[in-house]
Amino acid sequence: MNGLFFKQKISNALIYIVLVITAIIVLYPVVWIITGSLNPGSSLFSTRLIPESFSFDHYIYLFKETNYLTWYKNTLKIAFWNMIISTLLIVSAAYAFSRFRFPGRTQGLMAMLVLQMFPGFMGMIAIYILLLQMGLLDNHWGLILVYAGGSIPFGAWLVKGYFDGLPRSLDEAAKMDGAGHITIFFKVMLPLSKPIIVFIAINNFIGPWMDFIFARLILRSGEKKTLAVGLFEMVTGQGNTEFTTFAAGAVLVAIPITILFFIFQDHLVEGLKAGANK
User: Fold this and answer.
1) 6 by DSSP, 3-state: which?
2) Could you give the 3-state DSSP secondary structure of residue 87?
3) What's the pTM?
4) Which of 112, 175, 178, 248 yields a CA-CA distance of 20 to 30 A from 169?
5) In sequence order, what DSSP letters do the residues of 221-276 get, joined into one string?
């Protein structure tokens, strides 16, 4: 009995040690980038984890001497509309594949499954030519459409799995009361699918904040750039000597995502588990 108790204690101790080490590995870069943004000077080599004096000059410089605020507004606009359009397309497509039977349904599902195996940047040339022909290069809406279209395969499969887990008796009961498909979709399916919808919406909001490749490909003019492109060009244009200013910009980039995570963390976890299980 004592031996079993001792083994349990050792096992718990090892688990806590692993968790502590993992937390340190994850949090150290975050702490370092925050303190780096508060370090005086601009060199990476002079940056200290605990600076002798804290300075907010880099934050002031971002807003006064660069187009950071414009980049921030552009990214916020793209992220917001991508979230709205992507969520609408994903949820409606998932509902159709889950509740209807029509010619090409199986082939469509297989096509979306196969598309998930290829990274999006493989179609960069085709996307560039298509947007060029449509007159959407250097246009935020062109970038939004690329993000929205690229999010459908993964998102639709995930939400479809959640819809499949909802009993069809709910649909049948609503039909007996005279509800049509649109009413069932908005009054029955969506209220019951709040966790997975929040998960999809937040994911599609976060995507444009992190993406560099497509934003760099599509957006050309300075007033159209996103945060990722603007910060990258700001650093490379200075010969990598503005690290602390870049760190300040990175800290501000993380604020909206952090706020959204803390507000919707319960829905995010529940939606991820539900979509994965079903």
Assistant:
1) helix
2) helix
3) 0.83
4) 112
5) SGGG--HHHHHHHHHHHTTS--HHHHHHHHHHHHHHHHHHHHHHHHHHHHHHHHHH
